[in-house]
Each structure stands twice: as C-alpha cells, then as structure tokens.
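Lab meeting, item 3. Inverse folding demo.
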C-alpha cells in the first residue's frame, strides 16, 4: 500500500514538473514573437517615412545613364554616355578637348549636365558675333526707349544727341561720354552733376529732357 502511494506521488510530481516546463516553453515562444514584432515595426515605419519624405520633396529620380550630345569646336563631336552625374568639363574632356579656335570663356564648364541635352561649343568668331548682336540689340532698345519718352538717355546717347540738350556743347558732351567710359552707366539723372563742368544750373535746364 505504501509503495502504491509512493509511486502515485512520484507520478504527480512528474506531471507538475512537465506542466511547468510546458508553461515556460510557451511563455518563451510568445516573448520571442512579441520581440520580433516590435523590432520590425520601427524599420517599417522608417521606410514609410523615407518614402513620404521623397514624395514631399518632389525630387526626380536620377537617371540610370546620362547621354549628352556635344558639338561645335571640340575635337570629337558626338553622343557621350555617363554612368553617373557629370559636369560640362567632363563631357568636353571625353570629346577630346577644345579645338584651337574654341571660345572657352563662353562656356560654364562647372555646370552639371542634364540627360539628353545638347552642348554646342562656339568658335571665337561665332561668340564675338553673338556678343555684337546682343550689344546692338541692347543699344537699339535704349534708343527706342529714349525716342518713346522724348528724352535723351544718358547711358546710350551719342555725342551729337547730347549736344541737342540746352547748355550742352561739344566739351560738355565729350565730358559726359568720358565719365560714362570711366565710371559706367548713370544710376540717376542727378548723377550728371558729377560730370566736370555740369553743375546745378545746367542740370535744371536739362533735367526734364534726360533719362537713364
């Protein structure tokens, strides 16, 4: 009888120990699942935040390849491809460099290139013609403004035009041109009194007939 009670006690003890082990094993698995969930969650949040940030900034994605056509005064004109962002100087170098007659100063060699663009290197002769046309257009615009307002533009007027102003003879007209050459354009009509020989009295005579 005692032996049966002893065996029964051992069995009960084994059942209790087994139940305890099963409980601990279940708790450990649950804890691991929770840990895994909370670890992955911030990463997902970070990814979503990064995507939202990219959409908010509106920055275009960089192309996988940059293709640029360069022509004009370079040794080897053609289409050149770059696997990453490059500058104009890199394209010129890839094309063998400038020709002897290239207008080097006409190009901003530090500018970043854009995919699919065309870069034309002008010759010195072409560049000078372009500058001459631009300056002529600016002068023409100034003359047109002077004619439209009925006033003489001090910054573009010729010596003959200046001499049409009351109190302005050959010497004063030349002085105005010399001042313009040495100091640049007049900022205001009052600046004409900075010219040698032109004081307030002369200014009062011509102030309604001049502009800048």
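The presenter then showed the designed sequence:
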């Amino acid at each position: 009888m005692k032996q049966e009670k002893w065996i029964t006690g051992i069995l009960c003890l084994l059942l209790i120990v087994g139940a305890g082990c099963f409980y601990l094993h279940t708790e450990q698995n649950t804890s691991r699942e929770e840990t895994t969930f909370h670890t992955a969650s911030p990463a997902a949040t970070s990814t979503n935040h990064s995507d939202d940030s990219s959409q908010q900034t509106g920055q275009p994605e960089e192309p996988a390849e940059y293709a640029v056509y360069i022509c004009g005064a370079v040794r080897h004109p053609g289409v050149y491809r770059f696997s990453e962002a490059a500058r104009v100087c890199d394209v010129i170098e890839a094309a063998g460099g400038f020709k002897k007659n290239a207008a080097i100063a006409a190009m901003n060699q530090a500018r970043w290139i854009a995919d699919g663009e065309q870069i034309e290197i002008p010759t010195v002769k072409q560049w000078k013609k372009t500058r001459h046309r631009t300056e002529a257009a600016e002068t023409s615009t100034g003359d047109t403004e002077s004619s439209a307002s009925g006033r003489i533009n001090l910054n573009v007027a010729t010596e003959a035009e200046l001499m049409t102003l009351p109190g302005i003879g050959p010497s004063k007209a030349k002085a105005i041109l010399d001042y313009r050459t040495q100091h640049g354009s007049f900022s205001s009509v009052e600046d004409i009194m900075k010219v040698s020989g032109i004081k307030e009295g002369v200014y009062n005579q011509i102030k309604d007939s001049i502009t800048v």
